[in-house]
Amino acid sequence: MDALLERRGPNVLLDQIYATRTVEDSRGNRFDPFPVAISYNEGRALYRLARKARARRILEVGMGYGISTLFLCQALRDNGGGVYAAVDPLERTRWRSIGLRNLQNAGLEDLVTLHEAPSYEVLPQLLRERERYGLIFIDGAHQLDYVFVDAFYADKLLEPEGFLVFDDVWARPVARAAALFCRPGRYRRVPGSSGPHPSPLWRLLSQSPWFLRALAKNPRWFFGGGRGSYWWTFQKMQDDFLPRAYTLANRDSSTLA
Ligand SMILES: C[S@@+](CC[C@H](N)C(=O)[O-])C[C@H]1O[C@@H](n2cnc3c(N)ncnc32)[C@H](O)[C@@H]1O
Fold first, then answer.
1. What pTM value is reported for the model?
2. What is the distance in A from the centroid of ligand 1 to the CA of 239?
3. What is the pLDDT of residues 87-123, one digit of tens each?
4. Which residues of 2-19 are buried (b: 16+ CB within 10 A; e: fewer)?
5. Relative to the CA of 109, which of 24, 76, 206, 229 has its CA 20 to 30 Å away?
6. How far does residue 238's CA lie from ligand 1's centre (Å)?
7. CATH classification of the domain holding 18
8. Does ligand 1 come within 6 angstroms of the Cβ of 141?
9. Of 139, 146, 174, which is best to mutate to test ligand 1, by the most ligand atoms within 8 angstroms of its C-beta?
10. Which domain holds residue 237?
11. How far apart are CA 72 and CA 47, in angstroms?
12. Which is nearest to 109 in space by CA: 121, 93, 98, 96?
């Protein structure tokens, strides 16, 4: 499998997208998916991780043009099928359903359930429904409060020994959320499945609101078209003790009553 991946991606559509740097909507309008979409290296690392973990249940926050979705769903298909939950409130509006169209063209749409609402509404709902996932990829809103909420629920939704991947850890809020929720002891960092560490200059710059505004306006200046990306992968060692403590406390109070 690895030798094959050195020459081409896990599916023909991905090869085409990275070669032409183009995605298309149903009216034939073309768009450059970068740097919104993940880099080829990151996609390939995600594919390999999902294959190696034999993931059967994957959750993604932030689908966009669906490039990461293509890598992960292809891994799911190659693992023998499973469940893929994608969360993105703007899939049919801002992203013109291009992610869904890509999945259809790759023959992967049957795997995916798209939740068209913000993650802070969908993730608690999935938790209430007792859903659990073996791999969770977080690439939604990058502001501190939003990414903290994503990380909080992802931790609860992840199976023990499952993998949690944060994209764009060059952004300080994302790195802070990852560091807070994926503490040593409960998680282990998986260096072989992570991207390069953001340089001290990046970390310093990403604290500046001026820099973040400039980045949002001109992402291509900084990322050179999807080539530079930073992601961290963690493996969960054990569940949080809090839900168990909470259950015990409830049982005690009901006994008292
Ligand atoms: C960087 S793009 C994702 C790119 C995609 N993962 C890929 O590699 O092709 C970030 C996505 O997060 C979505 N998003 C923003 N806020 C969100 C939220 N609160 N919940 C879920 N998705 C959100 C945006 O609509 C956008 O599609």
1. 0.86
2. 27
3. 999 999 999 999 999 999 999 999 999 999 999 999 9
4. eeeeeeebbbebbeebbe
5. 229
6. 28
7. 3.40.50.150
8. yes
9. 139
10. 2-256
11. 6
12. 98
